[in-house]
Amino acid sequence: MSARDTLETDTRVVDAADVPRETPETEQAEESPRGEVLDDPVRRREESAEARQRAEGNWEERPFKVDREELGKFDLRRAGLPDMSIESAAKYVEEHRASRPWLAMTDRACPEATRIIAAMDAAGGHAHIRHEGSVTEEANRRRVAYREDPAQLDPQKRALSVDGLRPNDKRHRCADIATRITDPDAFATAFTRGVEHPDVRKALDMVFNQGAMPKAVWIPIADLLGPDGHDHCTGWRLKPVEGSMETAYKERNAWVVDRAEGRKSDAHEPEAQPVSTFQGGVITFMFVGNETERRYEIMTMCPDPPEDPRGES
Amino acid sequence: MPPFYWERHPDGPFATLIAVATSYLHPEIDDVDSLKRFAKAKDSQEPRVFKSELREALRDPSSLPAGELFKSVQYDDDSDEAFLGRLWHELYGDETP
Asked: Can you give the residue range of the structural domain that contains B78?
């Protein structure tokens, strides 16, 4: 039974407590699937976040009509990615999925999209780790609200906002919004079409120079994923405090530091709310220099809604 | 309208400062080590413009376009001035701004 089947009409509190509910020993646990969900605090929060995303973010999961031939023809080297066959990509996923669980997203992908996602994973970018379907709605909500990194696999470190991809337990940073493309085939399609877009090509083809860095590039979602492409994007944004996103951002950061250092915070506990629509939005590409290869690469790719593109909070 | 300040105002005040700081320090990138190498590069014009604008902004933070630096970079400091001061120190050490 799907989550939607079990909680379609559930209107209970959505931000469930972080600790398991205490159940008296005499109380029998629910046996129904609905009961199993509600007695598991993690699943309860996941279901609640998805319910909010459907209700407030107008999200309805639907399949993306993928052009497999287009993805199959994509030359991975155009994005500075290691060349891979469909077979070697499948092998890569099987060999690494235990240590890199986000690769499970490829279970829902066509083989051609799996090839692209596996190559991105091997190359070290984070777009597919933090902005794709393997990130749940609850994980994105907690990322923007509490700076909990979906890429951090240690639950205790994640709860302390420790970044999962950086060394030395560096604290994870997150902008005032966290977004994703919900379908792996749509994600791979946006990436491949973005790589061939003139503005992204101009960035990737720049002659490497430590004294220069390509500026971020934005491309309309509709240009990369078609007129309904926004249906495959979801996101969470910090809830403004006293009408100000800047205040909310600073209060969140203070709250996160206080929590990580075991202090009671005077700051407002952060809250996040679903992005209402991505229609008319863009996909933002950001770049990084590869010192070894002396070239520029895509560091991340993420959808941004129309009313508040990244950097315009 | 393009979403980025430097696209809306390519010749606007502090366009290079805001664009460069965003490219290296936005939370999605957060790569101060590469920015340090950028700041030390001697064969490009942009690092010199960046340093000049950073120095100018530090001398008079009120001359920055209102809210644009924070909106674009999303730094964790309490103010533009605190961010700029920290940035100068990280990039140029004890050199006088």
From this structure: 10-92
Which residues are bridge partners to A297 per DSSP? A288
pLDDT digit string, tens, across residues A180-204 = 999 999 999 999 999 999 999 999 9
B80-92 and B46-59 helices cross at what angle (nearest 10)? 130
Measured torsion, CA atoms of residues A96, A195, A282, A138, in degrees rounded to the nearest 10:
0
Is any Cβ of chain A less than 8 angstroms from the Cβ of B59? no
* Interchain CB contacts (distance < 8 Å): A and B: 85
Sequence-ordered list of residues with C-beta below 8 angstroms from that of A191, at least 6 positions apart, any chain:
A79, A116, A120, A127, A298, A301
Quote the domain boundaries for residue A32. 1-56
* DSSP per-residue string spanning B11-35: TSTTHHHHHHHHHHHSTTT--HHHH
Question: Kindly report the CA angle at A81 between B41 and B30, in degrees rounded to 5?
Answer: 45
**Structural domains counted in chain B:** 1
One domain for residues A41 and A185 = no
The strands making up A233-238's β-sheet, listed across from edge to edge, are A177-181, A233-238, A272-274
- Per the CB < 8 A criterion, the answer to whether A283 and A310 are in contact is no
Residue A83 exposure: Cα atoms within 13 Å on the Cβ side: 3
Instruction: Mark yes or no for CB contact B71/A311 under 8 Å.
Output: yes
**Measured between CB atoms, does B18 come within 8 Å of chain A?**
no
Q: Give the residue from chain B lying closest to A254, CA to CA.
A: B76
ipTM: 0.94
What's the gap in Å between the CA of B1 and the closest CA on chain A?
11
pLDDT digits (tens, 9 = 90+) for A96-123: 999 999 999 999 999 999 999 999 999 9
